[in-house]
Amino acid sequence: MRTLILAAVGAVAFAAPAFAGPVTLKVNPVDSDGRVTLGDLFDGAGGASNVVVGQRAGPSIVFEAGQLQSLARQSGLDWANPAGLRRVVVRNAAVAPAASPTDTAMAAVAPTVSRPVPVRSAYADRVISRNDIVEVAYEVGGVRLTISGRAEGNAAVGQRLAIRNLQSNRVIDAVATAPGQAAAGPAARASTQQLAAR
């Protein structure tokens, strides 16, 4: 009987660490089938990699950082959120940009700034907060390029802000278009002009 009890205790002790430990948020989290798992979000998820935490219906899904921490904790994972993020965007892997070509193209066509430039403070409610992970789109001549970056400030729809490219660490001048999304280049200028004319 004692042997059985010790075996059971040992099995529990060895099973628990498979779902425990600190994890790191992926730089560009993506999923391929609409089912967002802890493995899609975190490096080091181990045995909890296949735990589903959300369903992506469109091209992306946005999680609140606190919500992600709670979901990770329920599976024994510890995400400290060292960057102090408020939201995390997970995109469809089929349309996620390749890091190097996109980064080069965005650097070539998008001007850089050292800080956010506000357009008008009386726009609608804030859709992007400082440290949010934001998808930035550059579209011209039917070609659309996107990157993921970290917001350097707060912005409502139509307001300009600086986005730091997670791959190159360059800062891109963009305009907030929706929660977790922004535009750069001609589309950004057109968006700003339309809102300024209202």
Approximate shape: globular
| Tally of DSSP β-strands | 16
| Number of helical elements | 5
Distance between the termini: 80 Å
Question: Could you explain how this protein is built, in words?
Answer:
The chain is α+β, with helices and mostly antiparallel strands and 198 residues long. It has helices at residues 2-15, 38-41, 65-74, 99-109, 186-196, and strands at residues 21-22, 24-25, 30-31, 35-37, 42-43, 52-55, 60-64, 77-78, 87-92, 126-128, 133-140, 143-151, 155-156, 160-165, 171-178, 181-184. The radius of gyration is 20 Å and the shape is globular. The model is unreliable at 3-19 and 98-124 (pLDDT under 50).
Write the layout of secondary structure elements.
Layout: H1 2-15, E1 21-22, E2 24-25, E3 30-31, E4 35-37, H2 38-41, E5 42-43, E6 52-55, E7 60-64, H3 65-74, E8 77-78, E9 87-92, H4 99-109, E10 126-128, E11 133-140, E12 143-151, E13 155-156, E14 160-165, E15 171-178, E16 181-184, H5 186-196
Structural key phrases:
198 residues; alpha+beta; five-stranded mixed beta barrel; globular
Quick summary of this structure?
With 198 residues, the protein is of the alpha+beta class. It has 5 helices and 16 strands. The chain starts with a helix and ends with a helix.
